[in-house]
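It is worth pausing here to work through a concrete case rather than discussing structure prediction in the abstract. The textbook approach is simple: state the sequence, then state the predicted structure, then interpret. We follow exactly that order.
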Amino acid sequence: MPERRRIAVGNDEAAIGLREVLAAHLEARGFEVDHYGPSTADDPIDYPDVAVDVAQRVADGTYDRALLLCGTGIGMAIAANKVPGVRAAQAADTYSAQRARKSNDAQVLTLGARTVGPELARAIVDAWLGSEFEGGRSASKVAKLRALDEVSVGRR
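Step two, the predicted structure:
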């Protein structure tokens, strides 16, 4: 992965355990991990707040990539995709994680703590981090996604 070795990991209270597993895994791989979201279940937060905070940091270039974790990963993906310039993909298998990068240039990966076990989650993250945007036939499609961001910004 040619990007910086710093990554954001955001979570809600449903994914505290998965965040700890993945943060340790990323740190073992040499990443500096910045945490967003609660560390205990006593400090609940609404997942859209975490998703937008982290996605904005991706959009502004603070991070090249980020992980967002909640119960299913779906809500985090929906919220993160509201931020112009961000392409977030939810994955529950390694192939989808690879394609999120290779075909869609997704900078944000979302996972569900209630749908993916720790071992599979590590494999999914590794597949995503080990993949790069291929361009080619996908370049024009991603360009259209970027253009949609511009239309969205114009409406605000």
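Step three, interpretation. The chain has one domain: 6-155. The beta strands are 6-11, 32-36, 66-70, 88-90, 108-112.
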